[in-house]
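Progress note, project year one: complex with magnesium ion.
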Amino acid sequence: MSDAIATARAEGRTLLSEVESKELLRAAGIPVTEARLATSASEAAAIATEIGFPIVLKIISKDIAHKSDVGGVALGLESASAVRRAYSEMLERVLAAAPKARIDGVSVQQQALPGTEVIVGATTDPQFGPVMMFGLGGVFVEVLKDVSFRIVPLERRDARQMIREINGFPILQGVRGQKGADLKALEKLVLDVSKLVWKRGDIAELDLNPVFAYPDGAIAVDARIVLKAVDADGKEG
Ligand code: ADP
Ligand code: MG
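Model obtained:
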């Protein structure tokens, strides 16, 4: 069992924090931005200096699902003093927006270069068990519901097809002289998530929203994992 999962289980939690989720993903070879938990402004500044600028800060709270909705994401921090200031301002903003939220700290992470935003997810269907989802990020998923699904475990062919069958696929191929996304890297990422979910068997939900797709490579900048509940005999329910 990974440390992240052991800690969550010991605390009776099923929701992993962004930092814990990324730790698990990274161990499975899935590309994620390096993210570490800070519990003070000076710790955040010290971690930022180790990781390198620009830095992104995000609130870590089990009571907050959408961090940007409560002012819990700060992008483009260029110095230790900017990180220090952003840390305090973020806590004030978040506590004003969500006064009852329990705050565990702030995730300090490497800022990824902009890319085409896609989402990769896994859910558990009561009938089919684990199911993978793929789509473009932003309005495409929220408004247009332009997503594809496959039952886990996926074959390479399934990953290829599910990426190609969304309506927005031309955007990934590259439009009007823009370079397309690295489809091989996306296929590998989808397959590696499928493998992780299949191998572990204790993941109820997994969301990488967004993944930045580049002409060369792809990286998840946000991650959320929910474990299956464990019943009184310690068996997964
Ligand atoms: P939430 O979905 O909880 O609001 P996210 O972690 O997805 O928070 O962050 C919101 C947005 O900020 C993302 O959609 C992405 O565009 C940007 N973002 C988040 N983390 C990074 C990062 N490490 N590097 C670059 N951009 C980021
Ligand atoms: Mg997100």
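Helices lie at 3-10, 18-27, 41-51, 80-97, 139-142, 156-164, 169-173, 183-200.
The two ends are 18 Å apart (CA to CA).
No further modelling is planned for this target in the current period.
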